[in-house]
Amino acid sequence: xxxxxxxxxxxxxxxxxxxxxxxxxxxxxxxxxxxxxxxxxxxxxxxxxxxxxxxxxxxxxxxxxxxxxxxxxxxxxxxxxxxxxxxxxxxxxxxxxxxxxxxxxxxxxxxxxxxxxxxxxxxxxxxxxxxxxxxxxxxxxxxxxxxxxxxxx
Amino acid sequence: xxxxxxxxxxxxxxxxxxxxxxxxxxxxxxxxxxxxxxxxxxxxxxxxxxxxxxxxxxxxxxxxxxxxxxxxxxxxxxxxxxxxxxxxxxxxxxxxxxxxxxxxxxxxxxxxxxxxxxxxxxxxxxxxxxxxxxxxxxxxxxxxxxxxxxxxxxxxxxxxxxxxxxxxxxxxxxxxxxxxxxxxxxxxxxxxxxxxxxxxxxxxxxxxxxxxxxxxxxxxxxxxxxxxxxxxxxxxxxxxxxxxxxxxxxxxxxxxxxxxxxxxxxxxxxxxxxxxxxxxxxxxxxxxxxxxxxxxxxxxxxxxxxxxxxxxxxxxxxxxxxxxxxxxxxxxxxxxxxxxxxxxxxxxxxxxxxxxxxxxxxxxxxxxxxxxxxxxxxxxxxxxxxxxxxxxxxxxxxxxxxxxxxxxxxxxxxxxxxxxxxxxxxxxxxxxxxxxxxxxxxxxxxxxxxxxxxxxxxxxxxxxxxxxxxxxxxxxxxxxxxxxxxxxxxxxxxxxx
Lengths: 153, 497
Prior knowledge:
The structure holds two protein chains of two kinds. Chain A has helices at about 10-30, 45-65, 80-100, 100-115, 120-145. By secondary structure, chain A is mainly α. Chain A folds into two domains: about 10-65; about 80-145, no CATH class. The longest helix of chain A has 22 residues, at about 120-145. Chain B is globular. By secondary structure, chain B is mostly helical. Chain B starts with a helix and ends with a helix. At the A-B interface, α1, α2, α3, α4 and α5 of A face α7, α8, α17, α18 and α19 of B.
């Protein structure tokens, strides 16, 4: 009998619980570097320690609840393509805006993000770049006077 | 009366040309994004917060609030004419509203939705005028222990009442509290959880998290769903409701307003739950329940009044106690904090122009919406033909650029991306971001009052149970969890079967 068929039919609480417990532990360990103080004179570490301990406990209870066999529910799928493409688009923007200026950064973000659902047509891409550039430049550059060069040569 | 005097000040603030202009922008934008499925008020407010930086706080909150209640108007338009709930709060409006439209009575449905929203909005405003000063007077005398317990209760209630399991909600709230503590400890000045990074010294900007969660995570989520193409746009017909329509609607409007006003004040509930509750309440008390689902005007009237009333009264705990009951309210508070306003019971006294200006602007904004929505309905519906494929790159650029414009550093964008990806993955594990967002806002406040209470009590934690108010809040927190947890489990089990 594999674990997934047996007591662990529901992996979700285990994953969630592990995430909570792990992040709680990370905060807990870090907070030990700060002065805890006493209940009367609380240092900067006192309250975070308290909350982090609670978070670890919630995580452990969550893991424990997975062994109650009544629930059966699969994990929801993760849309990796849109997730990674959009992350890449924002990264491209972050790099380009300092290196090449506003106009290429906007264009770069639009082009990359369009791959989130499929391969865009050239006409659609160009049209969208022009529209987004016009909207964003008129608001951020002309209206708000954002101090970022349009193009770095 | 003092409240009337203050309200007069509010109208003076709200009717300055600049604030009227921001109000108009807010409600127009709200209507627009309310119609568009997949683009909600949370995303829009997150996107616009950077632009409000440096604006007078009252102008920024007038505009951002306009987006919020304007969206529920727009949501009803899309629900009635094309059977697409533009907003979650309009889901039940689809049921009877679209049936009415198919019977050629779309205009009447739109008109009743608009009138109901306006009536509910006006009553909501009146309630705020009546309740806010009383509540604020009450809360302002709270001891730090009482206030800390109140914040704790608000946090627990939001974590418990949102979708998903109670454990996940509480975990997300605690995670939010910890993230909210990053930066300089306000009491001792030492830095916490910054790992020596200068960028983190001032704490994690609220807007960084908000844009990550509501732009990045939402966009990925929406791209993954099958795009709902609008079908046939139903004909509007006459926009004048008949006398019989009005007669059938006025009581449901008032009942919906009552339900919505109540749910709006409670933490963790809001326009969506209140519209659903109001709809099913009407169906239950109707003489002939079978009419519901076949174009009963009462269903539209009650649901649309309820969501607008809830949208208004949600401001009561936010503005009088500094405690946001929903993610939208947390965002508005976040925007205010960014512009130098300290949330808390002193907000009304210290910034009367802010609070009363906002209240007056909501009434003016509701009037604008009435005028904007009915005659221009055809124009708004055309927007539905813009595919999401074209919208999200623009939203992304706008969000990223707005965030970058605050500090001109790429670090904020990386951090935002981190929160976005994390929030998306956690949401797939049924951990909703709402308690997390509220935890970030409430975390530092909770710590401040907790520490103050402990100093006053000379380190005795008993102070939280010897004050009867504090004890009441703590008992209520436990009750909320105990009452909700088994119910939710039952529902989850029923859904699994």
